[in-house]
Amino acid sequence: MFTELGCRCHLNKPGDEQTLQKMIPDKVPNKDVFHGSDDLKNEAHIPSFEKYKELYINSIENPDEFWGGVARDFFWKTKHTGPFLDYNFDVTKGEIFIKCMEGASTNICYNLLDRNVHEKKLADKIAFYWEGNEPGDELTVTYRELLQRVCQFANVLKSQGVRKGDRVSIYMPMVVELVVAMLACVRIGAVHSIVFAGFSAESLCERIVDSQCSLLITADGFYRGDKLINLKLLADEALQKCRDKGFPIERCIMLKHLSKEPEETVGSSSPPAKRSCPDLQVPWNPQVDLCWHTLIQGASDECEPEWCDSEDPLFILYTSGSTGKPKGVLHTVSGYMLYTAATFKLVFDYQPDDIYWCTADIGWITGHSYITYGPLANGASSVLFEGLPTYPDVSRMWEIVDKYGVTKFYTAPTAIRLLMKFGSEPVQKYKRESLKVLGTVGEPINPEAWQWYYNVVGEKRCPVVDTFWQTETGGHVLTPLPAATPMKPGSATFPFFGVVPAILNESGEELEGPSEGYLVFKQPWPGVMRTVYGNHQRFETTYFKKFPGYYVTGDGCRRDKDGYYWITGRIDDMLNVSGHLLSTAEVESALVEHKFVAEAAVVGRPHPVKGESLYCFVTLTDGVVYNNKLEAELKKQVREKIGAIATPDYIQNAPGLPKTRSGKIMRRVLRKIACNDKDMGDITTLADSSVVDHLFQNRCCTAV
Ligand code: WT7
Q1: Which of 296, 73, 344 has the alpha carbon at shortest distance from 180?
Q2: Distance between CA atoms of 99 and 526, rounded to whole angstroms?
Q3: Which residue among 469, 491, 571 has the greatest number of ligand 1 atoms within 8 angstroms of its CB, and so is best to mutate?
Q4: Can you list the alpha helix ranges (DSSP code H) found in 437-489?
Q5: Angstrom distances, CA of residue 406 to CA of 357, 358, 361, 507, 679
Q6: How far apart are CA 672 and CA 652, in angstroms?
Q7: Which tens digits make up the pLDDT trace of 190-228?
Q8: Is 107 in the pocket of ligand 1 (CB under 6 A)?
Q9: Structural domains present in the chain
Q10: For the chain, what percentages of helix, strand and coil (3-state, to nearest 5) are there?
Q11: Is 315 helix (H, G, I), strand (E, B) or coil?
């Protein structure tokens, strides 16, 4: 059927017309659901559930037509020749591959900037309102200025020998120059690999080596709240580790962020930021270090884009893997561009006068897709925020909403739960009248937090789009559309266009109607990842092996009687701490690197703000006594190996761990101990059950 319609779906089992019709109900309930406001419906791209269903079915049955419509909005140097999507999703039939718009060539930077400046008359429109960590630190950049600065920096990269296909590592705070650096890579066809500035030197080194980056771009430092992060020191440490591993990177471009003098602002007519921070002394190695500001002086602000094929690599972004070694998720040019542009436009119901704000860091996929690519592809004006929701006080977010007149606001459940603790007063100090749509991402949102977000922040006026997706999916895959989908608090509702979800049982059978099991996808959509960088086999094993013919998300999911999807959380060895995925193996291996730790096991324990916290069990080497000093050392060890997000919340000394007779640690039992839940279920497979009593008696009651 797909073949007839021009989608060469190799060896896959497409849903027939009837199954497709059943995928999305005709009617959605009127009771216990929330609707978008009439005002929103009047201007919305997708104004009703019926329209959503009609377009959804078309997007699956006739992808060429659906995505062709999206693609028409972009510039193509050459047009694609074959089917819109060509793929194999079944490992038993051969190598997994996904190709979108083969034969086409384009440049994303050209589409995001040149086209907006020259064709869409958006040259003077603000692309970003930068709001620094310190209130009062602010800067704006227009589309024209952004284009100039990107071209200038692209020329710098070229002069440093960076060529198409080369990997460039970026380790920067939330500043406009981070967007400049990433788009400069894109302009010349280089592949950016952004490492979140909260990761440790060790993590940065690991990522640089894995993707064989030839250059690092960083900054002197930045403030997170009142805490100074000496980023350059960490970058230097990472580069030293790279040398020790036999992978020397000999060029590092440093932006002076904290110590920048106002007159150093080049290529921008915007007022220079007020710098309230002292000059930061950074170590400088003239053999390696290059100054951003010196390099851009004299660099031309014109740069021909490099035309890239649809399936050329666009960027690598690392995400935790269950083996402990992060996976370099690779996204490619055309599919990612179309998918982030379309999801941004429809999920936030983007309108030209919107002021959009996503609070994520660009170092995560949310920031890639919904601060840089999606918004700029639509010519949007966004807030780019460097600071924290609680600094200088817990009203900061709402102050910013009023200051810029934010209309569409996108944040994480963990931030909502954190602010919720302070009650409604800090929210109500500000008007928030401009808000129209609220969004969440990162983890399941508990209905209580949803209600608070909807009632207090949005004053029952703004729909909440609970967007389920992953680094791997590139963009939203299950999500409400704000004017079309009646919302149920805690449900990510229905699939986005082109996405076909299914729920499987343990034997891999598709479940129909209300059911619970593994969330999988039956066919690719343009934004899905293409491979794990340098390890295609790992890509196949991780996502396609368990259930041949399906992409496996690793999440559990329930479908209710109305057809709504509810994510129940990870069903692999992953933890979600404040919306960030960590693998238990990653934290365990950081702990056992300490000379006094013989064995470690890490589990998640529910946490009211972070979603999950890290509860670690450590078995010490013989003769070592557990004390506060060792605990502090272990905490530090994990922070240094991975980063602050992985800092253990609890560490329990465990002279013995619950194991099966074959020696496998029973994490299920450890999770019960972490939660002090005595309802253990069947533990007859335990080799030594006295271990469990001992661990219960010595539980940690307070977080370290
Ligand atoms: C995992 C992906 C996608 C950007 C942020 C995280 C969980 C994400 C939701 C949601 C329930 C969610 C899943 C997913 N997750 N959004 N709306 N409802 N769970 O990206 O680090 O790749 O993590 O985050 O468990 O698999 P990521």
Answers
A1: 296
A2: 8
A3: 469
A4: 447-452
A5: 7, 10, 18, 47, 48
A6: 14
A7: 999 999 999 999 999 999 999 999 999 999 999 999 999
A8: no
A9: 108-313 (3.40.50.12780), 578-697 (3.30.300.30)
A10: 30, 25, 45
A11: strand
Model pLDDT for residues 141-161, shown as the tens digit of each residue: 999 999 999 999 999 999 999
The two structure tokens encoding residue 614:
């890290």
463 to 33, 41, 173, 395, 450: CA distances (angstroms)? 11, 11, 31, 21, 10
Tell me how far the alpha carbon of residue 522 lies from the centroid of ligand 1, in angstroms: 19
- What span, in angstroms and rounded, lies between the C-alpha atoms of 57 and 205? 45
> 604-615: string of b/e by CB count within 10 Å (b at 16+)?
bbebebbbbbbb
**Which ligand 1 atom is at minimum distance from the Cα of 366?**
4
- Cβ–ligand 1 distance for 470 under 6 Å, the answer yes
Mean pLDDT of the chain: 92
DSSP 213-245: -SEEEEES-EEETTEEE-HHHHHHHHHHHHHHT
Q: Is the Cβ atom of 601 under 6 angstroms away from ligand 1?
A: no
Rounded to the nearest angstrom, the distance between the alpha carbon of 324 and the centre of ligand 1 is 18
Q: Name which of 401, 410, 400 is nearest 344 in CA terms.
A: 410
Buried/exposed code over 211-222 (b: 16+ C-beta within 10 A; e: otherwise)? bebbbbbbbbbb
DSSP state letters, 139-190: EEEEHHHHHHHHHHHHHHHHHTT--TT-EEEEE--SSHHHHHHHHHHHHTT-
Q: What is the pTM of this model?
A: 0.92
Tokens 């051969």 locate to 94
Q: Which of 441, 446, 493, 551 to mutate to test the pocket of ligand 1 (most atoms within 8 A of CB)?
A: 441
Measured distance CA(348)–CA(352) in Å, rounded: 12
